[in-house]
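Quarterly update, task 2.4: flavin-adenine dinucleotide-bound model.
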Amino acid sequence: MGEEAGKKGRMMIQRVKMPEQDPGERRSNFDEVALGLSAEAARTEASRCLQCKKKPCVAGCPVEIDIPAFIKLIEEGDPLAAAAKLKEKNSLPAICGRVCPQETQCEAVCTLGKKGEPVAIGRLERFAADYEAAHGEIVLPPKEPPTGKRVAVIGSGPGGLTCAGDLARLGHEVTVFEALNAPGGVLTYGIPEFRLPKAIVMREVEYVRSLGVEIRLDQVIGCSYTLQELFADGYDAAFIAIGAGLPMFMDIPGENLNGVYSANEYLTRSNLMKAYLFPEYDTPIKRAKRVAVIGGGNVALDSARTALRLGAEEVTIVYRRSRQEMPARAEEIAHAAEEGVAFKFLTLPVRILGDEWVRGMECLRMELGEPDESGRRRPVPIEGSEFELEVDLVVMAIGTRANPLLTSTLPEVKLNKWGYIEADPETGQTSVPNIFAGGDIVTGSATVIEAMGAGKRAARAIHSLLTK
Ligand code: FAD
Ligand code: SF4
């Protein structure tokens, strides 16, 4: 078959669908929604890839995975080699294969996507990583000889783990300091089990440990120790990846009533404190009949779908703009709707009602005006449109910001006006030469893969600083 005919043949193959748990069943369990591709389906999907010479998909990947190369190995029937290829650039492929917004990254620039559907790169990444975990010995990549240099990584989210893994492979002695009692950052305390099983996060954390990284839990830097104390203790450089986990509230009356949670607290109680494993764990969390979740992003959807699984009868997402402006992934919006989450668009809560406990929410209807600084049409209240929503639990998922606990102890590290660390986008270097930073604490809330990209670039820069 000629090259052109082969290409046409590949373009005729339909993108494989991801098998999923039935919506009626999954709305009341925490098992994973997406079930993963079979080996046969993965090979079929891999055979759609055109092996483009210019590899546009690689440019769309913040951690520069050689995408056509790993896909080719799946097509050739060697998923173990595909997993090894992925791990040359990405220490957390089973996580990225599940939660990365590929539709706006590698898949958005895939050549096949110009005329039809792009190659399902994320699904193939997940397949190779899961296959390796189920069938193969985990093969450790080659490691450089010890450099005698020590690096402290603050925060064990995707940014910190990636930087730590890469530095360990380059021969440095790396310690990760984590404030919580479990590693993983948002991957562990934020993203729910039904989207990202915790066993998978722990498997990838173990992989980073096996590269030689030490992870110390329950260590709040800026409180348990200062960064200055770590330097005095012999660390040569630090990478700060503490995320942006401080919840924001609306500042409306009634927000201090019992039954109002920040999404952060609600999800932490469910995930990290294991309320989702009731009755094995009897974690205090309000189980309500009618739940309102305020916000339109992934965090709002995760909270709403968690509330359903914790037994709520009605769960409503309350969002002040329309569906078109929702920042959440389209796939997640569809999943939530299939499970029975209701959506109240163009609605703004103005007061939470109740005496001691929440019993309702007063809202205003909105209409869309001119675009604001975010480029989205500004929601404008419609006068006299007040109405009440009967709810007994409210979850605020309107965003998070930087926690000043560590940065307030580092006056020499420059912050921007919102309290995020100013760092060079190419290297992560801050205003202090041996302090680097990356992930959400630099960019504000973003994505797993962007935090990983920042961790990777910082590892390269720290290595060059320590070895020049
Ligand atoms: P984090 O993951 O926030 O990790 C920071 C870590 O630092 C935490 O473990 C924290 O405890 C620790 N820490 C903080 N302060 C200190 C201190 N002083 N000392 C020691 N440790 C400290 N992105 C996607 O790409 N796809 C998704 O589907 C997605 N879903 C999301 C769902 C939810 C509910 C949330 C909240 C976010 C979601 N995101 C998603 C965003 C993504 O998770 C973040 O952008 C990413 O985790 C940022 O990584 P990070 O390494 O910068 O920080
Ligand atoms: Fe394959 Fe798409 Fe990458 Fe081309 S752009 S190599 S078709 S994944």
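Highlight for this quarter: The two ends are 52 Å apart (CA to CA).
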